[in-house]
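Problem: given the chain below (560 residues), write out its structure.
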Amino acid sequence: MKKKLISLALLAGLILSSFTACGASEEEDTTAEAETRTTTITLTAITGDSTTPDAIEEVQKALNKLTKSEYKTQVILQLKTEDEYVEFIDSQVEKLEAEIAAAEEAEAKAKEEKKKKKEAEKAANAAKKNRSKWTTTTKAETEDTTADTQAMTLDEYGREVAKYPELEGTSLDIVFVTGLDMLQDFVEKEYLQALDDELNNNSKLLRKYIYPTFLSAGKVDGSTYAVVNNRLLGEYTYLKIDKELADKYKLFPDEVETLLDCEAFLDNVKANEKDVVPLNQYIDLNYVQYVTGERTVIGNVIKPSFTTANKAMPKNLFAVGDWVDHNVLMDKLQDGGYIGTGDRYAVEVVKGYITTPEEQNWEENYYVIEYEKPISKDETVFTGMFAVSAYASDLERCMEIVTMLNTDGALRDIYAYGVEGKHWELNEDGSVHMLNNDWSMNFYHSGNTFVGHAPESLPANYAEIGKLQNIETLTGPYMSWTYLNEETEALYNEYVAEAEKLLAEFDAAADRTAWAEAFNAELKEDTEKTHIINRMTAADGDNNFAVSYNDFQTAMYGAG
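Solution.
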Protein backbone atom coordinates (compact mmCIF):
# COMPACT_ATOMS: atom_id res chain seq x y z
CA MET A 1 0.00 0.00 0.00
CA LYS A 2 2.78 2.46 0.90
CA LYS A 3 4.51 1.84 -2.43
CA LYS A 4 1.20 2.43 -4.23
CA LEU A 5 0.69 5.80 -2.51
CA ILE A 6 4.26 6.89 -3.24
CA SER A 7 3.76 5.98 -6.88
CA LEU A 8 0.50 7.92 -6.93
CA ALA A 9 2.31 10.94 -5.58
CA LEU A 10 4.67 10.69 -8.54
CA LEU A 11 1.75 10.35 -10.92
CA ALA A 12 0.01 13.34 -9.33
CA GLY A 13 3.22 15.33 -9.69
CA LEU A 14 3.27 14.70 -13.41
CA ILE A 15 -0.35 15.81 -13.77
CA LEU A 16 -0.10 18.88 -11.54
CA SER A 17 3.07 20.11 -13.24
CA SER A 18 0.93 20.91 -16.27
CA PHE A 19 -1.47 22.96 -14.15
CA THR A 20 0.66 24.92 -11.64
CA ALA A 21 4.12 26.45 -11.86
CA CYS A 22 6.65 24.67 -9.67
CA GLY A 23 9.44 26.66 -8.03
CA ALA A 24 12.51 26.05 -5.95
CA SER A 25 10.57 26.45 -2.70
CA GLU A 26 8.02 23.76 -3.62
CA GLU A 27 8.60 21.83 -0.42
CA GLU A 28 8.08 24.98 1.69
CA ASP A 29 4.39 25.46 0.80
CA THR A 30 2.37 26.34 3.88
CA THR A 31 -0.76 24.49 4.91
CA ALA A 32 -2.83 27.62 4.30
CA GLU A 33 -1.61 27.84 0.71
CA ALA A 34 -2.42 24.17 0.13
CA GLU A 35 -5.95 24.65 1.49
CA THR A 36 -6.70 27.50 -0.92
CA ARG A 37 -5.56 25.61 -4.02
CA THR A 38 -8.32 24.26 -6.24
CA THR A 39 -8.51 20.56 -6.92
CA THR A 40 -10.59 18.13 -8.92
CA ILE A 41 -11.64 14.70 -7.68
CA THR A 42 -13.96 11.98 -8.93
CA LEU A 43 -16.93 10.38 -7.24
CA THR A 44 -17.57 6.95 -8.72
CA ALA A 45 -20.94 5.44 -7.86
CA ILE A 46 -24.02 3.48 -8.95
CA THR A 47 -26.99 5.15 -10.59
CA GLY A 48 -30.34 3.89 -11.86
CA ASP A 49 -30.91 2.81 -15.46
CA SER A 50 -33.08 5.86 -16.22
CA THR A 51 -30.45 8.50 -15.36
CA THR A 52 -29.66 10.66 -18.41
CA PRO A 53 -26.33 12.26 -19.39
CA ASP A 54 -27.96 15.70 -19.21
CA ALA A 55 -29.12 15.02 -15.65
CA ILE A 56 -25.62 13.94 -14.63
CA GLU A 57 -24.22 17.19 -16.01
CA GLU A 58 -26.90 19.26 -14.24
CA VAL A 59 -26.45 17.49 -10.91
CA GLN A 60 -22.68 17.73 -11.15
CA LYS A 61 -22.95 21.48 -11.74
CA ALA A 62 -25.30 21.90 -8.76
CA LEU A 63 -23.04 19.85 -6.49
CA ASN A 64 -20.00 21.86 -7.50
CA LYS A 65 -21.61 25.16 -6.58
CA LEU A 66 -21.49 23.90 -3.01
CA THR A 67 -18.21 21.98 -3.02
CA LYS A 68 -16.31 24.77 -4.78
CA SER A 69 -17.69 27.36 -2.38
CA GLU A 70 -16.91 25.28 0.70
CA TYR A 71 -13.63 23.58 -0.20
CA LYS A 72 -12.53 24.79 -3.65
CA THR A 73 -13.05 21.21 -4.81
CA GLN A 74 -14.57 20.24 -8.13
CA VAL A 75 -16.32 16.86 -8.18
CA ILE A 76 -16.59 14.85 -11.39
CA LEU A 77 -19.29 12.18 -11.29
CA GLN A 78 -18.43 8.79 -12.77
CA LEU A 79 -21.75 6.93 -12.62
CA LYS A 80 -22.50 3.41 -13.79
CA THR A 81 -25.49 1.14 -13.51
CA GLU A 82 -25.34 -1.63 -10.92
CA ASP A 83 -24.55 -4.36 -13.44
CA GLU A 84 -21.65 -2.31 -14.89
CA TYR A 85 -20.21 -1.00 -11.67
CA VAL A 86 -17.72 -3.55 -10.36
CA GLU A 87 -16.36 -4.23 -13.84
CA PHE A 88 -15.82 -0.48 -14.29
CA ILE A 89 -13.96 -0.21 -10.96
CA ASP A 90 -11.77 -3.17 -11.91
CA SER A 91 -10.98 -1.61 -15.30
CA GLN A 92 -10.11 1.76 -13.70
CA VAL A 93 -7.71 0.05 -11.30
CA GLU A 94 -6.08 -1.83 -14.18
CA LYS A 95 -5.54 1.45 -16.06
CA LEU A 96 -4.19 3.17 -12.96
CA GLU A 97 -1.72 0.39 -12.32
CA ALA A 98 -0.45 0.79 -15.88
CA GLU A 99 -0.15 4.57 -15.41
CA ILE A 100 1.69 4.09 -12.11
CA ALA A 101 4.12 1.71 -13.78
CA ALA A 102 4.73 4.32 -16.48
CA ALA A 103 5.23 7.04 -13.84
CA GLU A 104 7.72 4.88 -11.97
CA GLU A 105 9.59 4.27 -15.19
CA ALA A 106 9.58 8.03 -15.90
CA GLU A 107 10.89 8.71 -12.40
CA ALA A 108 13.70 6.23 -12.86
CA LYS A 109 14.67 7.91 -16.13
CA ALA A 110 14.46 11.35 -14.51
CA LYS A 111 16.76 10.23 -11.71
CA GLU A 112 19.24 8.84 -14.18
CA GLU A 113 19.15 12.05 -16.21
CA LYS A 114 19.54 14.08 -13.03
CA LYS A 115 22.55 12.00 -12.05
CA LYS A 116 24.15 12.48 -15.44
CA LYS A 117 23.45 16.20 -15.38
CA LYS A 118 25.01 16.63 -11.93
CA GLU A 119 28.09 14.76 -13.07
CA ALA A 120 28.34 16.98 -16.12
CA GLU A 121 27.87 20.11 -14.00
CA LYS A 122 30.57 19.03 -11.60
CA ALA A 123 32.86 18.37 -14.48
CA ALA A 124 32.10 21.84 -15.81
CA ASN A 125 32.50 23.31 -12.31
CA ALA A 126 29.03 24.91 -12.56
CA ALA A 127 26.98 23.28 -9.83
CA LYS A 128 23.28 23.80 -9.97
CA LYS A 129 20.37 22.48 -7.98
CA ASN A 130 17.82 20.48 -9.86
CA ARG A 131 14.58 21.96 -8.57
CA SER A 132 12.08 19.18 -9.17
CA LYS A 133 11.91 15.60 -10.26
CA TRP A 134 9.38 16.45 -12.90
CA THR A 135 10.17 20.04 -14.00
CA THR A 136 12.60 20.71 -16.85
CA THR A 137 12.16 24.48 -17.22
CA THR A 138 15.21 26.73 -16.85
CA LYS A 139 15.98 29.12 -14.01
CA ALA A 140 15.27 32.12 -16.21
CA GLU A 141 11.78 30.84 -16.90
CA THR A 142 10.92 30.57 -13.21
CA GLU A 143 12.67 33.43 -11.45
CA ASP A 144 9.30 35.02 -10.61
CA THR A 145 7.60 31.76 -9.70
CA THR A 146 9.23 30.46 -6.56
CA ALA A 147 6.16 28.65 -5.15
CA ASP A 148 3.06 26.88 -6.37
CA THR A 149 0.56 29.48 -7.53
CA GLN A 150 -3.15 29.19 -8.13
CA ALA A 151 -3.94 29.12 -11.84
CA MET A 152 -6.62 31.62 -12.87
CA THR A 153 -9.07 31.91 -15.76
CA LEU A 154 -11.92 34.16 -16.88
CA ASP A 155 -15.54 33.23 -16.31
CA GLU A 156 -18.43 33.88 -18.69
CA TYR A 157 -18.67 37.45 -17.41
CA GLY A 158 -14.98 38.19 -17.96
CA ARG A 159 -14.13 38.01 -14.25
CA GLU A 160 -10.91 36.40 -13.12
CA VAL A 161 -11.68 33.24 -11.13
CA ALA A 162 -9.73 30.26 -9.86
CA LYS A 163 -9.16 27.58 -12.44
CA TYR A 164 -9.88 23.94 -11.63
CA PRO A 165 -7.58 21.20 -12.92
CA GLU A 166 -8.84 19.11 -15.80
CA LEU A 167 -8.75 15.37 -15.25
CA GLU A 168 -5.80 13.84 -17.03
CA GLY A 169 -5.48 10.11 -17.27
CA THR A 170 -7.55 7.76 -15.14
CA SER A 171 -8.98 8.92 -11.83
CA LEU A 172 -10.51 6.99 -8.95
CA ASP A 173 -10.99 9.01 -5.77
CA ILE A 174 -14.24 8.65 -3.79
CA VAL A 175 -15.72 5.21 -4.38
CA PHE A 176 -19.25 4.10 -3.51
CA VAL A 177 -19.57 0.62 -2.00
CA THR A 178 -22.71 -1.43 -1.40
CA GLY A 179 -22.89 -4.69 0.51
CA LEU A 180 -20.49 -6.36 2.91
CA ASP A 181 -19.19 -8.64 0.16
CA MET A 182 -18.20 -5.70 -2.05
CA LEU A 183 -16.50 -3.94 0.86
CA GLN A 184 -14.49 -6.99 1.81
CA ASP A 185 -13.65 -7.70 -1.84
CA PHE A 186 -12.37 -4.15 -2.44
CA VAL A 187 -10.30 -4.26 0.75
CA GLU A 188 -8.84 -7.64 -0.15
CA LYS A 189 -7.88 -6.30 -3.58
CA GLU A 190 -6.27 -3.25 -1.90
CA TYR A 191 -8.56 -0.84 -3.74
CA LEU A 192 -9.28 1.27 -0.63
CA GLN A 193 -7.38 3.44 1.85
CA ALA A 194 -7.77 3.15 5.62
CA LEU A 195 -9.63 6.17 7.01
CA ASP A 196 -8.94 5.96 10.75
CA ASP A 197 -6.43 8.81 10.94
CA GLU A 198 -8.80 11.10 9.02
CA LEU A 199 -11.76 10.13 11.19
CA ASN A 200 -9.74 10.93 14.30
CA ASN A 201 -8.50 14.26 12.98
CA ASN A 202 -9.74 16.30 10.00
CA SER A 203 -12.98 14.32 9.56
CA LYS A 204 -13.92 13.81 13.21
CA LEU A 205 -17.15 15.76 12.62
CA LEU A 206 -18.51 12.55 11.09
CA ARG A 207 -18.52 10.96 14.52
CA LYS A 208 -21.20 13.45 15.60
CA TYR A 209 -23.46 12.64 12.66
CA ILE A 210 -23.07 8.90 12.19
CA TYR A 211 -24.48 6.33 14.57
CA PRO A 212 -21.75 4.14 16.18
CA THR A 213 -23.16 0.95 14.62
CA PHE A 214 -22.41 2.38 11.17
CA LEU A 215 -18.97 3.71 12.07
CA SER A 216 -17.87 0.32 13.38
CA ALA A 217 -19.46 -1.46 10.39
CA GLY A 218 -16.95 0.20 8.06
CA LYS A 219 -14.11 -1.73 9.68
CA VAL A 220 -12.36 -4.70 8.08
CA ASP A 221 -9.64 -6.46 10.07
CA GLY A 222 -9.56 -3.63 12.60
CA SER A 223 -9.19 -0.71 10.16
CA THR A 224 -11.95 1.57 8.86
CA TYR A 225 -12.22 1.52 5.07
CA ALA A 226 -15.65 3.03 4.52
CA VAL A 227 -18.03 5.60 5.97
CA VAL A 228 -21.34 3.75 6.12
CA ASN A 229 -24.45 5.82 5.39
CA ASN A 230 -26.71 6.52 8.35
CA ARG A 231 -30.16 5.04 7.84
CA LEU A 232 -33.06 3.64 9.81
CA LEU A 233 -31.96 0.16 10.79
CA GLY A 234 -35.17 -1.82 10.76
CA GLU A 235 -38.65 -2.06 12.20
CA TYR A 236 -40.22 -3.11 15.46
CA THR A 237 -42.41 -6.19 15.54
CA TYR A 238 -45.53 -5.61 17.62
CA LEU A 239 -48.35 -7.84 18.82
CA LYS A 240 -51.67 -5.99 18.80
CA ILE A 241 -53.89 -7.89 21.24
CA ASP A 242 -57.61 -7.19 21.13
CA LYS A 243 -58.40 -5.53 24.48
CA GLU A 244 -61.98 -6.70 24.74
CA LEU A 245 -61.06 -10.33 24.09
CA ALA A 246 -57.98 -10.22 26.31
CA ASP A 247 -60.02 -8.92 29.23
CA LYS A 248 -62.74 -11.50 28.55
CA TYR A 249 -60.34 -14.45 28.57
CA LYS A 250 -58.02 -13.14 31.29
CA LEU A 251 -54.91 -12.56 29.21
CA PHE A 252 -52.71 -10.17 31.15
CA PRO A 253 -50.54 -8.16 28.73
CA ASP A 254 -47.78 -7.59 31.28
CA GLU A 255 -47.17 -11.35 31.29
CA VAL A 256 -46.78 -11.65 27.49
CA GLU A 257 -43.19 -11.96 26.30
CA THR A 258 -43.53 -14.57 23.55
CA LEU A 259 -46.40 -16.01 21.56
CA LEU A 260 -46.27 -19.04 23.84
CA ASP A 261 -47.76 -16.84 26.55
CA CYS A 262 -50.82 -16.35 24.33
CA GLU A 263 -51.53 -20.03 23.64
CA ALA A 264 -54.44 -20.47 26.06
CA PHE A 265 -55.93 -17.17 24.92
CA LEU A 266 -55.73 -18.23 21.26
CA ASP A 267 -57.36 -21.56 22.13
CA ASN A 268 -60.30 -19.77 23.79
CA VAL A 269 -60.78 -17.44 20.82
CA LYS A 270 -60.61 -20.34 18.37
CA ALA A 271 -63.22 -22.29 20.35
CA ASN A 272 -65.64 -19.49 21.17
CA GLU A 273 -65.25 -16.51 18.80
CA LYS A 274 -66.40 -17.62 15.37
CA ASP A 275 -66.08 -14.17 13.80
CA VAL A 276 -62.54 -13.59 15.04
CA VAL A 277 -59.33 -14.90 13.46
CA PRO A 278 -56.96 -15.89 16.29
CA LEU A 279 -53.70 -14.89 14.51
CA ASN A 280 -53.00 -13.06 11.25
CA GLN A 281 -49.70 -14.67 10.19
CA TYR A 282 -46.87 -17.08 10.93
CA ILE A 283 -44.18 -15.61 13.16
CA ASP A 284 -40.84 -16.96 14.33
CA LEU A 285 -39.66 -16.97 17.92
CA ASN A 286 -38.69 -13.45 18.88
CA TYR A 287 -34.96 -12.72 19.01
CA VAL A 288 -33.90 -16.01 17.41
CA GLN A 289 -30.77 -15.52 15.28
CA TYR A 290 -29.71 -18.02 12.62
CA VAL A 291 -26.12 -18.45 11.46
CA THR A 292 -27.21 -18.57 7.81
CA GLY A 293 -29.58 -15.61 8.07
CA GLU A 294 -32.66 -17.81 7.55
CA ARG A 295 -34.36 -20.61 9.45
CA THR A 296 -31.88 -23.38 10.14
CA VAL A 297 -30.85 -25.64 13.03
CA ILE A 298 -27.87 -23.71 14.41
CA GLY A 299 -28.08 -20.24 15.94
CA ASN A 300 -28.99 -18.65 19.23
CA VAL A 301 -31.77 -16.76 20.99
CA ILE A 302 -30.57 -13.40 22.28
CA LYS A 303 -32.10 -11.21 24.96
CA PRO A 304 -33.72 -7.80 24.34
CA SER A 305 -30.77 -6.33 26.26
CA PHE A 306 -28.17 -7.95 23.99
CA THR A 307 -25.06 -5.84 23.26
CA THR A 308 -21.83 -6.44 21.40
CA ALA A 309 -20.18 -7.07 24.75
CA ASN A 310 -22.07 -10.39 24.78
CA LYS A 311 -21.62 -13.44 22.60
CA ALA A 312 -24.31 -15.47 20.89
CA MET A 313 -22.32 -18.63 20.31
CA PRO A 314 -23.82 -20.79 17.53
CA LYS A 315 -25.55 -23.74 19.17
CA ASN A 316 -27.87 -26.62 18.38
CA LEU A 317 -31.36 -25.08 18.38
CA PHE A 318 -33.01 -28.46 18.99
CA ALA A 319 -31.58 -28.09 22.51
CA VAL A 320 -33.17 -24.64 23.00
CA GLY A 321 -36.50 -25.36 24.69
CA ASP A 322 -38.23 -22.09 23.77
CA TRP A 323 -37.36 -22.54 20.09
CA VAL A 324 -38.67 -26.11 20.01
CA ASP A 325 -41.82 -25.15 21.94
CA HIS A 326 -42.48 -22.22 19.63
CA ASN A 327 -42.21 -24.47 16.58
CA VAL A 328 -44.60 -26.92 18.19
CA LEU A 329 -47.07 -24.08 18.82
CA MET A 330 -46.81 -22.72 15.26
CA ASP A 331 -47.40 -26.22 13.90
CA LYS A 332 -50.55 -26.47 16.03
CA LEU A 333 -51.78 -23.03 14.94
CA GLN A 334 -51.16 -23.68 11.25
CA ASP A 335 -52.68 -27.18 11.19
CA GLY A 336 -55.59 -26.13 13.43
CA GLY A 337 -56.74 -23.24 11.28
CA TYR A 338 -55.84 -20.54 13.76
CA ILE A 339 -53.99 -18.42 11.18
CA GLY A 340 -55.82 -16.53 8.47
CA THR A 341 -57.26 -13.24 7.27
CA GLY A 342 -60.33 -11.43 8.50
CA ASP A 343 -61.84 -8.23 9.81
CA ARG A 344 -60.85 -8.84 13.41
CA TYR A 345 -57.88 -10.59 15.00
CA ALA A 346 -57.29 -11.72 18.55
CA VAL A 347 -53.54 -11.23 18.03
CA GLU A 348 -52.23 -9.28 15.07
CA VAL A 349 -48.53 -9.27 14.17
CA VAL A 350 -47.59 -5.81 12.83
CA LYS A 351 -44.34 -4.19 11.75
CA GLY A 352 -43.88 -0.51 12.55
CA TYR A 353 -41.64 2.31 13.69
CA ILE A 354 -40.95 3.27 17.28
CA THR A 355 -43.59 6.00 16.93
CA THR A 356 -46.26 3.94 15.13
CA PRO A 357 -48.37 2.78 18.13
CA GLU A 358 -48.79 6.33 19.41
CA GLU A 359 -49.27 7.91 15.97
CA GLN A 360 -51.97 5.38 15.08
CA ASN A 361 -53.54 5.39 18.53
CA TRP A 362 -53.37 1.60 18.86
CA GLU A 363 -53.74 1.60 22.63
CA GLU A 364 -57.36 2.70 22.41
CA ASN A 365 -58.47 -0.76 21.29
CA TYR A 366 -55.41 -2.97 21.75
CA TYR A 367 -52.82 -4.03 24.25
CA VAL A 368 -49.57 -3.38 22.39
CA ILE A 369 -46.71 -5.79 23.04
CA GLU A 370 -43.21 -5.00 21.82
CA TYR A 371 -42.47 -8.46 20.47
CA GLU A 372 -39.05 -7.69 19.02
CA LYS A 373 -36.86 -4.62 18.73
CA PRO A 374 -35.16 -3.86 15.41
CA ILE A 375 -31.97 -5.87 14.96
CA SER A 376 -29.27 -4.53 12.66
CA LYS A 377 -28.28 -6.93 9.91
CA ASP A 378 -25.89 -6.88 6.99
CA GLU A 379 -28.58 -6.31 4.38
CA THR A 380 -29.62 -3.01 5.97
CA VAL A 381 -26.39 -1.68 7.50
CA PHE A 382 -24.26 -2.19 4.39
CA THR A 383 -26.73 -0.78 1.86
CA GLY A 384 -24.53 2.18 1.04
CA MET A 385 -21.12 3.58 2.05
CA PHE A 386 -18.40 5.84 0.73
CA ALA A 387 -14.73 4.91 0.65
CA VAL A 388 -11.58 6.53 -0.70
CA SER A 389 -9.61 4.72 -3.33
CA ALA A 390 -6.03 3.69 -2.65
CA TYR A 391 -5.30 5.53 -5.90
CA ALA A 392 -6.62 8.89 -4.65
CA SER A 393 -3.77 11.39 -4.31
CA ASP A 394 -5.47 13.58 -1.67
CA LEU A 395 -7.27 11.69 1.07
CA GLU A 396 -8.11 14.82 3.05
CA ARG A 397 -9.85 16.56 0.13
CA CYS A 398 -11.82 13.39 -0.64
CA MET A 399 -12.92 13.07 2.98
CA GLU A 400 -14.12 16.67 2.97
CA ILE A 401 -16.65 15.73 0.28
CA VAL A 402 -17.59 12.50 2.08
CA THR A 403 -18.16 14.61 5.18
CA MET A 404 -20.43 16.97 3.23
CA LEU A 405 -22.51 14.03 1.99
CA ASN A 406 -23.02 13.06 5.60
CA THR A 407 -23.52 16.47 7.21
CA ASP A 408 -24.85 18.89 4.57
CA GLY A 409 -28.55 18.38 3.84
CA ALA A 410 -28.54 20.62 0.73
CA LEU A 411 -25.70 18.66 -0.88
CA ARG A 412 -27.21 15.29 -0.03
CA ASP A 413 -30.59 16.36 -1.42
CA ILE A 414 -28.94 17.24 -4.75
CA TYR A 415 -27.08 13.95 -4.89
CA ALA A 416 -30.16 11.94 -3.84
CA TYR A 417 -32.83 13.62 -5.95
CA GLY A 418 -31.16 15.90 -8.52
CA VAL A 419 -31.84 19.57 -9.10
CA GLU A 420 -34.80 21.05 -7.25
CA GLY A 421 -37.47 22.28 -9.64
CA LYS A 422 -35.98 20.23 -12.46
CA HIS A 423 -36.05 16.72 -11.02
CA TRP A 424 -37.96 17.12 -7.74
CA GLU A 425 -40.05 19.39 -5.55
CA LEU A 426 -41.10 19.50 -1.91
CA ASN A 427 -44.54 18.41 -0.75
CA GLU A 428 -46.35 20.43 1.88
CA ASP A 429 -45.19 18.02 4.60
CA GLY A 430 -41.54 18.49 3.61
CA SER A 431 -41.11 15.17 1.81
CA VAL A 432 -39.72 14.93 -1.72
CA HIS A 433 -41.85 14.31 -4.79
CA MET A 434 -39.92 13.29 -7.90
CA LEU A 435 -40.96 15.08 -11.10
CA ASN A 436 -39.34 12.57 -13.46
CA ASN A 437 -36.85 9.71 -13.65
CA ASP A 438 -34.06 11.61 -15.39
CA TRP A 439 -31.99 11.42 -12.19
CA SER A 440 -32.22 8.04 -10.48
CA MET A 441 -30.32 7.50 -7.24
CA ASN A 442 -31.13 4.98 -4.51
CA PHE A 443 -32.04 7.01 -1.41
CA TYR A 444 -29.90 4.74 0.77
CA HIS A 445 -26.91 5.22 -1.56
CA SER A 446 -26.93 9.00 -1.26
CA GLY A 447 -25.15 9.63 2.05
CA ASN A 448 -26.48 10.22 5.55
CA THR A 449 -30.25 9.78 5.15
CA PHE A 450 -30.84 11.70 8.39
CA VAL A 451 -29.79 15.00 6.79
CA GLY A 452 -31.83 16.62 4.03
CA HIS A 453 -35.37 15.60 3.12
CA ALA A 454 -36.99 12.16 2.98
CA PRO A 455 -38.77 10.80 -0.12
CA GLU A 456 -42.56 10.75 -0.03
CA SER A 457 -42.50 6.95 0.28
CA LEU A 458 -41.22 7.40 3.85
CA PRO A 459 -42.59 9.48 6.74
CA ALA A 460 -41.68 13.15 6.41
CA ASN A 461 -40.20 12.90 9.94
CA TYR A 462 -38.12 9.89 8.91
CA ALA A 463 -34.91 11.39 10.32
CA GLU A 464 -36.42 11.99 13.75
CA ILE A 465 -37.86 8.46 13.79
CA GLY A 466 -34.55 7.00 12.72
CA LYS A 467 -32.53 8.80 15.36
CA LEU A 468 -34.89 7.62 18.10
CA GLN A 469 -35.21 4.09 16.80
CA ASN A 470 -31.54 3.42 16.11
CA ILE A 471 -30.72 4.10 19.75
CA GLU A 472 -32.98 1.17 20.69
CA THR A 473 -31.85 -1.09 17.86
CA LEU A 474 -29.81 -4.15 18.76
CA THR A 475 -26.63 -4.93 16.88
CA GLY A 476 -27.16 -8.34 15.33
CA PRO A 477 -24.72 -10.85 16.83
CA TYR A 478 -23.80 -12.20 13.40
CA MET A 479 -23.63 -8.84 11.62
CA SER A 480 -20.33 -8.39 9.71
CA TRP A 481 -19.37 -11.99 10.45
CA THR A 482 -18.44 -13.78 7.25
CA TYR A 483 -18.02 -17.52 7.64
CA LEU A 484 -18.24 -18.64 4.03
CA ASN A 485 -15.02 -18.54 2.01
CA GLU A 486 -13.03 -20.83 -0.27
CA GLU A 487 -11.62 -22.74 2.69
CA THR A 488 -14.98 -23.33 4.37
CA GLU A 489 -17.23 -23.65 1.31
CA ALA A 490 -17.29 -27.46 1.19
CA LEU A 491 -18.07 -27.79 4.90
CA TYR A 492 -20.71 -25.06 4.70
CA ASN A 493 -22.47 -26.76 1.79
CA GLU A 494 -22.40 -30.06 3.67
CA TYR A 495 -23.98 -28.36 6.68
CA VAL A 496 -26.72 -26.69 4.62
CA ALA A 497 -27.68 -29.98 2.97
CA GLU A 498 -27.77 -31.88 6.26
CA ALA A 499 -29.58 -29.06 8.08
CA GLU A 500 -32.34 -29.07 5.47
CA LYS A 501 -32.84 -32.79 6.03
CA LEU A 502 -32.96 -32.36 9.79
CA LEU A 503 -35.45 -29.49 9.61
CA ALA A 504 -37.68 -31.44 7.24
CA GLU A 505 -37.63 -34.44 9.58
CA PHE A 506 -38.33 -32.23 12.62
CA ASP A 507 -41.19 -30.38 10.88
CA ALA A 508 -42.78 -33.65 9.76
CA ALA A 509 -42.58 -35.28 13.19
CA ALA A 510 -45.93 -36.05 14.84
CA ASP A 511 -44.39 -35.07 18.18
CA ARG A 512 -41.68 -32.47 17.63
CA THR A 513 -40.78 -32.27 21.30
CA ALA A 514 -40.11 -35.98 21.48
CA TRP A 515 -38.16 -35.84 18.21
CA ALA A 516 -35.92 -33.06 19.56
CA GLU A 517 -35.32 -34.95 22.80
CA ALA A 518 -34.34 -38.08 20.91
CA PHE A 519 -32.04 -36.12 18.62
CA ASN A 520 -30.30 -34.41 21.55
CA ALA A 521 -29.76 -37.78 23.23
CA GLU A 522 -28.25 -39.09 20.01
CA LEU A 523 -25.87 -36.10 19.85
CA LYS A 524 -23.88 -37.55 22.73
CA GLU A 525 -23.08 -40.60 20.62
CA ASP A 526 -22.05 -38.44 17.61
CA THR A 527 -23.85 -40.60 15.06
CA GLU A 528 -23.93 -40.05 11.32
CA LYS A 529 -27.21 -38.17 11.75
CA THR A 530 -25.91 -35.81 14.44
CA HIS A 531 -22.27 -35.47 13.40
CA ILE A 532 -22.66 -32.26 11.39
CA ILE A 533 -24.23 -30.45 14.37
CA ASN A 534 -21.43 -31.56 16.68
CA ARG A 535 -18.87 -30.66 14.03
CA MET A 536 -20.17 -27.12 13.52
CA THR A 537 -20.73 -26.22 17.19
CA ALA A 538 -17.62 -27.73 18.82
CA ALA A 539 -15.61 -25.16 20.77
CA ASP A 540 -12.34 -26.66 19.54
CA GLY A 541 -13.47 -27.43 15.99
CA ASP A 542 -11.56 -26.63 12.82
CA ASN A 543 -13.16 -24.00 10.53
CA ASN A 544 -16.58 -24.52 12.09
CA PHE A 545 -19.28 -21.97 13.01
CA ALA A 546 -18.43 -21.81 16.72
CA VAL A 547 -14.71 -21.17 16.36
CA SER A 548 -15.10 -18.79 13.43
CA TYR A 549 -17.73 -16.71 15.24
CA ASN A 550 -15.78 -16.68 18.49
CA ASP A 551 -12.65 -15.44 16.70
CA PHE A 552 -14.66 -12.78 14.84
CA GLN A 553 -16.50 -11.53 17.92
CA THR A 554 -13.36 -11.37 20.01
CA ALA A 555 -11.45 -9.48 17.34
CA MET A 556 -14.34 -7.10 16.63
CA TYR A 557 -15.70 -6.39 20.09
CA GLY A 558 -13.40 -7.92 22.69
CA ALA A 559 -13.55 -11.04 24.81
CA GLY A 560 -17.22 -10.71 25.82
